[in-house]
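Sequence and fold:
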Amino acid sequence: MKPRRLSTVLAILLVGSTLLIDSCGQKPSDGRATPGKDQASEARRKSEVPKVIPAPTLKGMTIDQLNALDKPSLERLSAYDVIFMRESRDTSDPKKASTTAALLVKMPLHELYYEVELGSTSGVDSSRFRQAAREFQGKLKDPQTGVLTFGQWDRAQAFSKTFHSTHYFPGEGSNVKNYSLGTVVTVTGTLKIVGEEIATPINLVYGVADKSTMTYRQSVASLSTTFGADFLNLDETEFRIIEWGAEEIIGATDYDARNEKVIINRKTKLVSYVITDKPPQLGEDGKPKNYGLDPLKEPRISTLVRGMDAARAHYEKLRDGVRPYLSDNILNTFGN
């Protein structure tokens, strides 16, 4: 009798589940029915789950086809698979290509202080690396699959380079000095825009104001980074001096679309620059000339500051932007 009663109970439960599914019109992901009154909450829960877009496969793909992929498609591929295929071009030994690819995939996470075994022969399938990858993916708010995509690996590379970047300091400070009984004045410092970000915060200004020629000649050496490489640039500008006073020297120059003034205060040692837009200029066709510059909302004011202070603030800001992506272990040890 007991087996028959159990079968009857199971049959009733199955019929009840079927009716419940039919009345709701859907099943949740675990196969059980969802009551009608919970449909809204279930839909909301599903919308909050990160959507995983299937990545293209490398199976049967040649290296030329890989290199021809657009950036979104490439970034969704496995980082290890992409790097392994690229390394395979330079060696006929698959084991060597695999070891190199695994090391390259692990390196950025290691440099962000995740627990990754660089010296181990284990590849990217080890439980420790997968756990590190999941933690990093969580910080990116990506699905925590434990398999780094090429895009995620590329971001880890960028974070690592920024956090461990070489620091360059453009001299001690800013100064104004008088020579030749006050007829020659030199200026040094680092240019900083008031209330705005400057494109090249690591810079060094050296200028000479000469009363005999009524000119102020200025050179600006600046450091910029393009495609991961650092470049040293040098720009020179000449201002015509429109006022040479006991306390202030004022120079002016003009560009295609803007005017600029430099104000050197010999007493306070403060050097300021003011840039303003020119009135619209008409071309030969009667239309306003377009120099590719957005109009300024207000005059742009810059000053010369101590280079050490400007550089230190710049690099600290860069590191602060990367700090949330460091491993929890290092953050918990040394603080945020």
Summary: Residues 2-48 form one domain. The beta strands are 175-179, 184-193, 203-210, 215-226, 229-244, 248-254, 258-265, 271-277, 300-305.
